[in-house]
Amino acid sequence: MSLAISDISKSYGRFPALKTVSLFAEDGEFLALLGPSGSGKTTLLRVIAGLETADAGSVQFRDENLLAKPVRERGIGFVFQHYALFRHMTAAQNIAFGMRSKPRRERAPEAQIKAKVEELLALVQLDGLGKRYPSQLSGGQRQRVALARALAIEPKILLLDEPFGALDAKVRRELRRWLRDLHERTGLTTIFVTHDQEEALELADRVALLKDGALEQVGTPEELYHEPASAFVFDFLGDSIKMPCTIEGGIAIIAGAGVPIVGNRVLENGLATAFARPDAFTITTGDAPGIAARVRNVLLAGPDARIDCGLEGGGALEVRLDHEQAAKLSPRDKITLLPRTVRVWPAS
Amino acid sequence: MPGFWPALGFTLVYLSFFLFLPLAALALRPWEAGLDHVWGVISHPRTVAALKLSFGAAFVAACINAVFGTIVAWVLVRYEFPGRRLLDAFVDLPFALPTAVAGISLAAIYAPNGIIGSLFAPFDIQIAFTPFGVMIALIFVGFPFVVRSIQPVLEDLEVEVEEAAATLGATRLRTILTVVAPAITPALIAGFSLAFARAVGEYGSVIFIAGNLPNVSEIAPLLIVIRLEEFDYAGAAAVGLVMLMVSLLILLVLNVVQTRVASRGRA
To answer: At what angle do helices B131-156 and B181-201 cross, to 10 degrees?
Structure first.
């Protein structure tokens, strides 16, 4: 075990930002801290880096107590959401900053620093742009300079705080893939914070989902997606549709129709809430058991067609179908909706 | 941009009435008494001494304000403490206080029998009624400029940048010198220029604390008033013109330096 976070607590005044959070990371692991805003994910990252002090708990790297050291001696690379580049320094000077900050005895000769800067510029695919100032670089380029700057100190761990949060969607996706490659090449233990579930599921070896300062579930992306531990996890990891249901003998009864339950959750007979993804619905025209609705709109742009349905009992929901099926539907059609399977949690 | 001509026209008319015409009058006035008289006035040892004192003391005062104004701005921006808002409001007082009041108050406490003056008197150091006194008054009037110039820049400075420096292994001192200082330098130069300009032209507060000994603690603006009282309008205007030229030159240089420094790192 490379990094062990044990029972970290932190409050701001009366507001508890972290409640006894424990988490570990293996050597070379790529770990995502996922959660809505205010869930404490950034606070946890800042505690590890030393930018925030924990009220209780410990952070251990191999056999070294990290919390006992000041920020600048921790040797942890930190990348900020808004880059935090030194504006009056060129990209190359930014990258060299950490190496030039070392005490004179440990500092590498200037020629070596220059060579290392060139090497890092190449690593982040910014060859030849070392003389540019941050204002002369695009958002994606700035974030890569920030990453190179953090890597320059040869950190034990790399921490990324919503590294792509300030970038537009296309650049985000490119950088995501690129970061994954970079991680495979450097093999550096990396923890990154994000509120974007897609990003976490795509990038991370393991995802830790936080809610209100506590861990909700930790596991591989597959585990989280296919075996969500709570309604919150299911809801957070993708679009979800909630329906009231009754449990009878291990089957969910929704609007009079029985739907099989997936997941190993055993519920007693009685009222509960069923959850399904928008693409897990069967739509039948004409009378069938299920949720009676009327098509309000059919949206055909996108990989899936989206059907906006007005429910007979009031309310609306949007389901996804493939284009072939969607082509048979038109606005004002009377339809019946039924999820093929559901997950069930106690009624909230 | 639409509206350029009316906007420029308005600006020029406005500046003409309040700036260019009075300055033109000042520039034209000295010559009516002849070149010899003008040269006689400005090369007079008393005039030279007064000009040296005015610019020298203003420069030193602006330097001192640059250092301590920066510290005050830092404290006001970076720390939360009871009374911070009140302290913040106090910074502007030298703007509002009649300068004569300031001068008399300063003279009272820095005089050999005043609260502060009496501390120095046993060592034979006299503050009021010497060039030191001039400097004290100029520090007082120029103080708000540096604080108010730096404050907004410090407020805008992202704490994250300093945190980044710390995670990269920089000591606090290195962070201040290499990360914070370059960011506030343009504002510091601007504040310095304003404090300096204000101090060069200061009259009201200085004359009460300076003692006004010719060749020693007599400032140029006072000399102008003395010349006016002697009905030597051309001579007064000649000294004024020299002050104007020197000030303009210094401010232009500072402006160029400030623009240069500020443009570092901008596209």
So the answer is: 140
Architecture label for domain A3-235:
3-Layer(aba) Sandwich (3.40)
Domain limits, chain A: 3-235, 239-346
The sign of the dihedral angle between the CA atoms of A89, A130, A124, A110 is negative
Q: What is the ipTM of this complex?
A: 0.84
Q: What is the CATH class of B34-266?
A: mainly alpha
pLDDT digits (tens, 9 = 90+) for A109-118: 999 999 999 9
Q: What is the pLDDT of residues B116-160, one digit of tens each?
A: 988 888 888 888 888 888 999 999 999 999 999 999 999 988 889
Q: How far, in Å, are A259, B55, B242, B251, B252 from residue B246 at the CA level? A: 90, 9, 6, 9, 10
pLDDT at A1 (0 to 100): 64
Q: How many CB pairs under 8 A join A and B?
A: 79
Set of chain A residues whose Cβ sits within 8 Å of the Cβ of B178 = 86, 97
Residue B169 to residue A153, Cβ atoms within 8 A = yes
Residue of chain A whose alpha carbon sits nearest to that of B160 = A84
In the prediction, which pLDDT does B267 show?
A: 47
Contact A155, A73 (CB under 8 A): no
Give the one of A78, A88, A136 whose C-beta lies nearest to B167's C-beta.
A78
* Chosen CATH of A239-346 out of 3.20.10.10, 3.30.2350.20, 2.40.50.140, 3.40.50.150: 2.40.50.140
Is A101 within 8 Å of B166 when comparing Cβ atoms?
A: no
